[in-house]
Amino acid sequence: MKISLSWLKEYIPVTHTVEEIANKVSLTGIESSPVKLGQGLDKLVVGHITSIKPHPDSDHLNVCMVDVGEDEDIQIVCGAPNVANGQYVIVARHGAHLPEGKRIKHGKIRGIESNGMICGLDEIGVPEKYVPEAFQNGIYLFPEAEKPGADALVLLGLTDEMVDLDITPNRADTLGMNGAAWEIGATYNEKPDIKSAELDESKVNGSVDITAEVDDEKLVPDFLLRELKNITVGESPLWMQRRLWNQNIQPVNNVIDSANYVMIEYGQPIQAYDLDKLQESNVVVRNAKSGEKFTLEDKEEKVLSHNDLIVASGSQILGLAGVAGGIDARVTADTKNILLESAVFDGASVRKSAQRHDLRGDASNRYEKGVDNGKVSEALVRAVQLVEQTGNVGSISKEIVGNKTEAKPTVIKGSISHINHLMGLELSSDEIMDIFDRLGFEAKQDGDNVTVTIPTRRYDMSIEADLVEEVIRIYGYENLKGTLPSGMETSGGYSPKREFGNKLRNTLLGQGLDEVINFALLSKAEVKDFNIKETDLTKLLHPMTEDHEYLRTSLVPGLINNVAYNQARNNNDIAIFEQARVFDRPKGEDRPNEVEYISGAVSGNIANDSWNTTSKEVDFYDVKGIVEELLSFTNAKAHFEYVATDQITNLHPGQSALITADGQRVGYIGKLHPSYQKEHNVNDAFVFELNVDELFDLNKRKVQSQAAPKYPSVSRDLAILVGKEVESGQIVNDIFNNGGKYLIDANIFDLYQGSHVKPGHKSLGYHLVFQNPNDTLTDETVEQAFDVIKESLVQKFNVEIR
């Protein structure tokens, strides 16, 4: 909301600069900034065209003689289509500065001397969309005679200074000049002089042609109308036009301009209809029928929903309530009788309709934040008054009531001592009562107790804490004395669980993966894709889109979307991870549990071509190595295993495994299923997911430093022939179980399947390392352990020792 200083002076004395006012208001909690119009413009005056003739060498130019308040008229060549003799226009003199660095100079246009420029509003800084429609393709004409040579910028309001209030949603009272005058006046201890609107009672009669009704009184607490007959629709006076375009509103005619003027003055939107164009003699506010069509004033058609609130006369839709008027009953130059509307509509309903149809504007913005229902009737009277002032009005009807709710001021009780206690100040009761008075609140004191009656314009106030806020705002936050905190200091730091999560995150970053952050909301199909625990899904009551209506049960679908997005843009080498919460809702529970997970996705090359290396595409074991490194940093006193599985439908059945810790499942790893990859337009990709909460709960090992071994290790190689169905992990586990206390390592170094190997079998080679930290191992000790290992493998897995 832009507060004009020249307009503000009609309410309170203004002696401060716009910069000082903006700074002062900002300190009270409403962020403000100064705005100065017309900076850099000069030598713009009123000109009176005294004669005009066609340019001898052009079919569209005219040569004008213009009185600019000097001894002699000046000659100006003008190409505007609406230029004519006798007009009062804007003239840029020789040397005048216009927006965007443009400067006017003497010159010749097709051989005819021109000593200035006749301007349109858009040429001197008024945005074209706010220029009255009649002047958008030509020069601006003053609506009445002005003194030639007078400063045009002053007359047009383009030297005005303004305070731009960036209000919070709870301070909609400052969306009108009256409310803003109270706010700024309280800041400077000045009570605004706001005159009540009055009607010419001689023109008011009791007869009406229209009745009004409201279907849902909760959605429409107030709906008031007045008929005005035998009016003259024409151009608004200049003082009204300039205040409108300075508020970014296009002047149209005196009726629509009066309605918009009241919206800026009171913060109360007013709607005007052509009374003779109404289909029936009844106006009703109701919900639209799904599929009903509504045509805006710019002829754009909207298809309505049953949730849209409309103003209608029979089957004729007059407007989308609180949002936009329609074309059917638009006020035009031919209008003789009008109907003015002042109402309060449900803010949530207005907001949703405005968003649904992309029609958010000045009126809907005010209804969304709230309007003062104590001024609905007075704002309607003010609109009638302005129409009467700017055009002839034959008669005015009484107030037509569709619904009217009594405006009740809020009464808040508190105590002086408690207010001071909450503020940490020691203000006297007189100081506090004076602040209430400055704000226009009626306050009564009874000893330490105080009862404050809040005017309806401040509907944001309801409890004692609101009184405290008002007192401290007006007293001045800058006047608070700084004090040091007392008591015990609390040492900062992360919780153990947070530190554990950070360690996992840093481990993956150290391995070259990039962290991503995705939305926690997915589509129904996505949220089912990796719901491994088969938990109940959690759906939002009011999702914004179908793609974001369920809380995720896994981080993997979001990572797959990231992979698809990058691969679609030829970024194929991807290694990403996310650490966040998923929402696990057990069967029958109303609310989900939030569980911390860490997941990753890798695709493309794990190594690229270089002078000494060749590119290598990522495989299952590369990703398994990433996970093993990650698990090693958990410092868990647990045995991690990778158990092959085909139960995760969206993973490749031959390249996926559950990850267990002492038999407890803590995650999974695998390659995406080919059909899933095709469906989501991704190339080969591997994913993993681990439950951070379960990893954190595992018992931790006690880490102790050890000296480097003094005695050498002894190694043995073991080659076996075994059935293809036997997993290498089973072999390694059995080797460790039977290798004795000196076996410190066992790893596979060879796998062979093909010729010279029995069908259905495979050849595996293992490297075993033995070491005694306290003595030199003898061959006899190693061979004894080696024999036990081989014997166990033969008995359990029917292997052949090679």
Lateral arrangement of strands in the main beta sheet: 27-30-31-37-36-35-34
Structural class: alpha+beta
| Overall geometric form | elongated
CATH topology group of the largest domain: Phenylalanyl-tRNA Synthetase, Chain B, domain 3
CATH superfamily name of the largest domain? Phenylalanyl-trna Synthetase, Chain B, domain 3
Low-confidence sequence ranges: none
Strand content: 25-35%
What proportion of the residues is helical, as a percent range? Answer: 25-40%
Number of helices: 20
Over the alpha carbons, how many angstroms does the gyration radius reach? 40 Å
Number of strands: 41
What is the CATH-assigned architecture of the largest domain? 3-Layer(bba) Sandwich
Rounded mean pLDDT score:
92
* CA-CA gap between termini: 89 Å
GO molecular function: phenylalanine-tRNA ligase activity
Domain B5: 407-482
Binding site for Mg(2+): 460, 466, 469-470
Pfam families: B3_4 (PF03483), B5 (PF03484), FDX-ACB (PF03147), tRNA_bind (PF01588), tRNA_synthFbeta (PF17759)
Structure description:
Its cofactor is Mg(2+). Residues 407-482 form the B5 domain. Keywords: Aminoacyl-tRNA synthetase, ATP-binding, Cytoplasm, Ligase, Magnesium, Metal-binding, Nucleotide-binding, Protein biosynthesis, RNA-binding, tRNA-binding. Tetramer of two alpha and two beta subunits. β30 (574-584) and β31 (593-603) form a beta hairpin. The N and C termini lie far apart (89 Å). α10 packs across α12 (464-475) and α19 packs across α20 (779-797). This protein folds into six domains: 2-37 and 161-187, Phenylalanyl-tRNA Synthetase, Chain B, domain 1 (2-Layer Sandwich), CATH 3.30.56; 42-155, OB fold (Dihydrolipoamide Acetyltransferase, E2P); 201-403, Phenylalanyl-trna Synthetase, Chain B, domain 3 (Phenylalanyl-tRNA Synthetase, Chain B, domain 3, 3-Layer(bba) Sandwich); 410-478, 2-Layer Sandwich (Phenylalanyl-tRNA Synthetase, Chain B, domain 1), CATH 3.30.56; 496-697, BirA Bifunctional Protein, domain 2; 714-801, Alpha-Beta Plaits (2-Layer Sandwich), CATH 3.30.70.380. The chain is an alpha+beta fold and 802 residues long. The chain is built from 20 helices and 41 strands. The radius of gyration is 40 Å and the shape is elongated.
